[in-house]
Write a structure and sequence with these properties.
Blueprint lengths: L1 E5 L4 H12 L3 E6 L14 E4 L5 H10 L2 E6 L6 H6 L1 H22 L3 E7 L22 H19 L3 E7 L1 E3 L17 H9 L6 E4 L11 E2 L1 E3 H16 L5 E5 L5 E2 H12 L5 E4 L8 E2 L4 H7 L7 H14 L5
Parallel strand pairs: 1-2, 1-4, 2-3, 4-5, 5-6, 6-11, 7-10, 8-13, 9-14
Antiparallel strand pairs: 9-12
Helix pairs in contact: 1-7, 2-4, 4-5, 6-8, 6-10, 8-10
Bound molecules: uridine-5'-diphosphate-4-deoxy-4-fluoro-alpha-D-galactose.
Amino acid sequence: MTVLVLGGAGYVGSHAVDMLLKRGYDVAVVDNLVTGHRESVPANVRFYEGDVRDQAFLADVFEKENIEGIMHFCAYSLVGESMQKPLMYFNNNVGGAQVILETMEEFGVKHIVFSSTAATFGIPEKSPISEKTPQKPINPYGESKLIMEKMMKWQSQATDMTYVALRYFNVAGAKDDGSIGEAHKNETHLIPIILQTALGQREFITIYGDDYHTPDGTCIRDYIDMEDLIEAHIKALEYLKAGGQSDQFNLGSSKGYSNLEVLETARKVTGKEIPSQMGERRAGDPDELVADSTKAGEILGWKAQNDLEHIITNAWKWHQSHPKGY
Ligand code: UFG
């Protein structure tokens, strides 16, 4: 039986493929290579290049593979871009989920674990954020993921399919040998930009605002290590296979770091000065996003193991060994 990894050539998907293989799972990958990299998936893994919105293509993959469960990572995920191109987000994220769920039903595939996001919560009234916190997204990206959660919920009620939605907080890090990692065309995320500055590829990092309601005035985020994140997906899949009911979990370390604290940690890890300057606020950034991951501990037996220093250490290995990405 095979785990089908949708978006397996992307940043998170490629790490999932790597860990699934290490754990002895049989794996097949689907990716349209729009943001993914073929080089991030081992050459001997069965690879189907195509788009999940293409029903005939996806049905052909389901025909060929004996699928026990799906991990779904193929969605657009940039908040800023989603504000500029909302329909592109609904088309890919919601439209993709629809075809995936229809194909699962057609072929009797029962389980799916998929990436949701802290962005479904919008600006939460209190922190940390638990699964009981109301979901009120403030951008099309978060909205598209919330719609995906709801599609899964209704479909699971109507059929015998079960799902787990994993709401990621800020994912960072890389495989511990630095062989796969984060490579976006136009990087917008804090840690990779800091490390590109450490490499001298950028003159300085601009920190977006120091007038937030936080102790040092910069935004606070909860960073989750890639390895911990994938562990949660494997536990979620096993939970579903064992008959667990459909559910949602917030995944973070339950510890927040301000943007300045992240920068300081990167200076310590890299031993580089990393020039920085203070800039204006970036639109749509909530003051603080920290996860309460108690529920994932209770039901999945999952807890984040790795701290920010570990995350940056592995990300630094990747950036040093792949300064131009793949
Ligand atoms: N930041 C800077 N300078 C930069 C880049 C980022 O100061 O050059 C700041 C941002 O303003 C923010 C923090 O660093 O305060 C983190 O920003 P990221 O862009 O790294 O990440 P986000 O918190 O915006 O978003 C990420 C994912 C989303 C997900 C969210 C959940 O990209 O998909 O985490 O917390 F929804």
